[in-house]
Every structure is written in structure tokens, then in C-alpha cells.
Amino acid sequence: QVSELVQFLLVKDQKKIPIKRADMLKNVIREYRDAYSEIVNRAGKTLQEVFGLQLVEIDSKRHTYILINNLPRVEGKYLCRDEEKEKMGLLLIILSFIFMKGNSVKDSALWEFLHLLRVYPGKQHQVFGDVRKLVTEEFVRQKYLEITPIPLTDPPEFKYHWGPRAEKEISKRDVLNAVAKIQGKDPTFWASQYSEAEA
What we know:
2 domains; 8 strands; Arc Repressor Mutant, subunit A; alpha+beta; globular
């Protein structure tokens, strides 16, 4: 059961979609439901030792899990395929923007910012495809981003925040250092971001 669960989790993680306990029970653990925690703990150990991946529960009410990579990262290098790397690059830019703007940004501000990078919503991008879909659906489904509606706005407006996967996988200190490097400033230049990154 353990090795079957490990394979199941690795396949699910390819799409970076959070994994529900119900799916693990239904598809893998089945009649061994009494040994659920034992099987999950052992699968977690195997993932950690063999693949350097950590099984993390991101929602204890709904019992959803994600795998996060905790092999030491060479700065800015992620273990992923090229297209994935580019998407990750875009995601990191978006997360940096959100963090530097005080942890939440309006959708209009985000699209304006992406405009400056010549990435337009609703226009096919040669690397990212449909950018609006990538940002509002894929990154949200993967729990890198969260979108919340801003009350009483007409037409409706939304705010973007870091999702639980971003909080677990990406260090705010790395983000701040990268921004500081790009802007040629010391990270302490942004006092509130600096104290949050160091916390």
C-alpha cells in the first residue's frame, strides 16, 4: 500500500493539484482505511528519503495535502522541465510583486504590472499560452495563488494573495533578496517586507 500511495502522490503532484484524503482512501488505501495514518506516514518518509519531497497537509478541515520540494535549491534553480521552469519564473515574478505590494494586489494592478513585462491577458503567449487562464485557474488550482472578491465592486474586482503552496515552498527572504538585487538596493530598503522576510 505504501509504495502504491507513493506512486499515486507522485503522479498527482505532476499537475501540482492538492491531493485529498478522500482520493487516497478511495484509490489506494481502500480496505486498509484503519491503517490510514500509518500508511500515509510511511509514504511521507519514503517521499522524503528517496525524492526529497515533503508531504504537507495544507488544509486540516478538508484534509488536503501537497508535496513540496525540500532539496536544497541552488538560488533560482528549480527542479523542473523547461516549460515548467518558465511558468515558475512567471509565478515567482507575480509572487514577488504581491509580496512587495504588501501581500495583496488588485487584479487590475497585477495585469498592469504584467503588461510592462509584455505579458497580456487574453493574448496567446508563445511560452505561457493563455496567460489569464494560467494565472486565474492553473496557479490558483495548484494553490500558489488565492483570489478573493473585493466586496461591493461593480464590475466585480478581485485581490490576489499568496496561496498555501507558495507560503510553504517559497521563501519571502529569497524573494526580497531577488528584488533587491534587480533594483540594486539593500533588502533593508523595504523595512516592512524585510522584517516580514526575516520573521
